[in-house]
Amino acid sequence: MLLNHIPDPIQLLDYIDDGEHARHYRFRLLSQNNNHDWRNVQAGQFFMLNVASVGEAPFTFTEPPNEHGEFRVFIRQMGKVTSTLFLMKAGDILGARGPFGRGWPLEKIKNSNTIIVAGGCGLAPLVNLIDRLISPSEDQHNNQQLALIYGARNRRSQMLNPERNRWKNNISIFNTLDESSDQDYPSSTIQGSPLNILAQAIATFDSPPKTALLCGPELMMNCIAEYFVDYGLPPESIFLSMERRMHCAVGLCGHCYLGNKYVCKDGPTFSWQELQQLTQC
Amino acid sequence: MKSYLINDLSPLQQHLSEHYQFHQPVKNSNEQCYWQQITKGTTKPLSDERPLSSAKRFFFTEHENLLIFNGEFFRETLPSPEPFVLFGVQSCDLSAISYQDKFFSEDPYYQARRKQCLLVGIDCIEPCENGFCPTVDAGPGVRSHTADLILHPLPNKHWLVIEKTEEGVQSLRGLTLETTQEHHLRQRDQALHRCKQLFADDSYITHGIENINSGKIPGSFWKKLAIQCVGCSGCTTLCPTCSCYGTRSTETEQEPGRKNNIQQRFWDSCLYEGFQREASFHNPSAEAGTRVQRFWQHKFGDNFYAEFEHYGCVGCGRCEQTCPGVIGVHSVMKRIENAAESYS
Is the distance from CB of A159 to CB of A278 less than 8 angstroms? Predict the structure, then answer.
């Protein structure tokens, strides 16, 4: 079976600003007859957004395509692709290829107490997962508890504010700010990094968390994964969503290598156990 | 499948060029050997030297268009080459094609070219400079599964032509050929055995492979080695198995006033500093030592061997020949061997 490198056309519907140089975009697949199968997108999978005049870059879905082909994506302005996108307006046509990669292990997560740690826009790949876990349509017979620690540099750079507001009645949320001169923030926010609040977050669980999900700066994830190993979580129950530069998203261009694997194809979600083996390669 | 004896390559070259666009290694006026297209109806002597560049560009081209966007739709720009023959591909380069056939098995651009190609391999009966194909099971005789036809030079300017695939059989239809005798094939075995014995001792390569896979080589070794990497991409360009690529978009005006965007891919190199650099400037392989280590791990790692049933090195020695920093395969493997005592 040959791969299809051709994007499906999508239309920019609208966007809202959220955080520093970051926006929630809404797109719509323009055709019913697509090159790619957009049904059954896993939470944590990604797609390649094609801005034809500059190129492609990988983004995760905060809401996967619905029956009308509409989907949402959280995008931070960073390089050439996103800077061009930020100049585009409703009605403009772009392209999308995907979904790609291995998302979060939903089956393993949904029956266990789970602690989630995200930094900066690293919360974006977790949005759809958290929405699914707290959705009334999900199997709620278990008494799963969730806690989210969200770290940001300062208040201005905190992102995904509507999502965190929406979740606050369903999960325990702790916010950390690396730098803050502002003492007037809620009790759930502390100054420091997510590492500083891990013990407090774990203490809120009735029974200890069995799974940890991490997404954010690599150094932050590595430190937190080591903390959880020391705490007693098995390395195969700690999951990290890795970020790498990608050109093809199908394991061919080589840019996203990690040991002998490719983050686009074998990830972006890896267990800490897998990552330890890969970094020894 | 049969084998034939011929005393002149020209009729075979003429015959194949009637049915295929014809390419073969040829020596130019500077005595350098290159792949060259031969005009239909003419023949040139087949060079027995290793071409400066491998045959990988015939399938995985240096740059090519992937798709075109007209403002509304994206359209694939698949190549549609006429049938072509690569006449006289040496065993190392054939092993590399076989390796890339696996790597690009699902890539439509690679496969569109590959399926149009007839591969005529040639046995090497003398070792070449810097070559060590026997050590990595890639020569000197053409591996059976890697070619459609095999040429073997016999003494007195005779050649064996050995059929290996149905495509190879079909390509010879219309030629009147003399079937070989059993002793000719024995002669081939003896010549290849003799050739193998003539390769210089390269046990340091075998030891180097073991050391690379032992995980004992410290990062400091690679860091020191990488001082000599100037990031020129000579090794990755000439390496017949290297396959990293980048993509870029360009604008084209096919009709006046109507601009289209074309997405292209082009050969890239994992040894470039910016190869993994992200838009945020986070760069997991910012250190040259990390990049050099990964390059050699990719060539000789057992985990890649398990996936491709072959190392990512076919022993052609081109990296040694081209590296301006003198960290091609022989130099690196010797340094690993020399340093091994200190970290074993």
Answer: no
By C-alpha distance, the chain A residue nearest B297 is A281
Whether A93 and A117 map to the same domain: the answer is: no
Shortest Cα distance, chain A CAs vs residue B277, angstroms: 7
Helix (H, G, I), strand (E, B) or coil at A159: coil
Q: What is the pLDDT of residue A110?
A: 86
Question: How many CB pairs below 8 A link A and B?
Answer: 115
Confirm whether A1 is domain-assigned.
Answer: no
Q: In this complex, is the C-beta atom of A253 within 8 Å of any C-beta atom belonging to chain B?
A: yes
Number of domains in chain A: 2
A40 touching B, CB under 8 A?
no
The dihedral sign for the CA sequence B155, B159, B165, B166: negative
Q: For residue A39, what are its two tokens? A: 């049904």
The rounded percent of chain A whose pLDDT value lies above 70 is 94
Range of the structural domain that residue A17 is part of: 8-100
pLDDT digits (tens, 9 = 90+) for A86-127: 999 999 999 999 999 999 999 999 889 999 999 999 999 999
Q: Does B228 touch chain A (CB under 8 A)?
A: no
- Distance in angstroms (rounded) separating the CA atoms of residues A161 and A155: 11
Looking at residue A17, its amino acid is D
ipTM associated with this complex: 0.94
- Looking at the structure, do residues A86 and A224 belong to the same domain, yes or no? no
A113 contacts A210 by C-beta, under 8 angstroms: yes
CB B282 to CB A57 under 8 A? Answer: no
Are A87 and A208 part of one and the same domain? no
Check the CA dihedral A75-A77-A81-A83 and report its sign.
Answer: positive
Helices (H), A76-139: 80-85, 106-109, 124-134
Task: Answer yes or no: do A52 and B301 touch at CB < 8 A.
Answer: no
Cβ separation of A55 and B263 shorter than 8 Å? yes
Instruction: Tell me, yes or no, whether A85 lies in a domain.
Output: yes
Mark yes or no for CB contact A254/B279 under 8 Å.
no
B325 close to A (CB below 8 A) = no
| Six token digits for residue A18 | 């959220």
B198: which DSSP letter?
H
Looking at residue A139, its pLDDT comes to: 57
Give domain status of residue A3, yes or no: no
Q: Check CB contact under 8 Å for B268 and A255.
A: yes
Same structural domain for residues A207 and A140? Answer: yes
Residue A130's nearest CA partner among A219, A37, A50, A60 is A60
Residues of A in contact with B275 (CB under 8 A): 245, 255
Please tell me the distance in Å from B328's CA to the nearest CA on chain A.
21
**3-class DSSP assignment, residue B86:** strand
Contact of B34 with chain A, judged by CB distance below 8 Å, is answered with: no
Rg (CA), chain A: 19
Tokens for B50, please give them.
């290793």
In terms of domains, do A116 and A243 share one? yes
